[in-house]
Specification:
three-stranded antiparallel sheet, elongated, five-stranded antiparallel sheet, Jelly Rolls
């Protein structure tokens, strides 16, 4: 198995960060071939999504998460910035990991699919993402 922990700077705003290019470099460094790629974010307030980016879907996702999980005082989990409790509910909706087949050293994604980090936690500007390739 080949594994690497990468750091992603998300800043102080909610974000959807496309990891697909970084994943491509990781797979290239791993030597190509077939297998299974696991992408995991070891944080209680972020998730991994396979989604189209650049055509508004990433912005739509954040808008829907704001509607579903408002940053207000309703949350019992109350440390951090206002509404931070919602960030701890996020991984139940956008899971902290995904597994994607790898064929010939590339993730077997559809034409418009990207692997993205979803981060609504404005209190933590840097995230770690674990990339692990299990050879086939």
């Amino acid at each position: 198995m080949h594994s690497e922990l990468i750091e992603i700077r998300t800043g102080a705003e909610e974000s959807v960060v496309d990891l697909t290019d970084r994943i491509g470099r990781f797979l290239s460094d791993a030597g190509g071939g077939d297998g299974l790629l696991n992408v995991f974010v070891p944080h209680a307030t972020a998730g991994i999504a396979v989604i189209e980016t650049g055509a508004g879907s990433d912005t739509d996702l954040l808008a829907q998460l704001r509607e579903l999980l408002p940053a207000d005082g309703r949350w019992r989990h109350r440390h951090g910035s206002a509404g931070h409790g919602r960030d701890h509910v996020l991984p139940a909706i956008v899971p902290p990991s995904t597994t994607v087949p790898v064929l010939d050293g590339r993730p077997a994604l559809g034409t418009w699919q990207s692997i993205c980090l979803v981060d609504t936690n404005v209190d933590n500007p840097t995230r770690s993402v674990r990339l692990s390739l299990l050879p086939g």
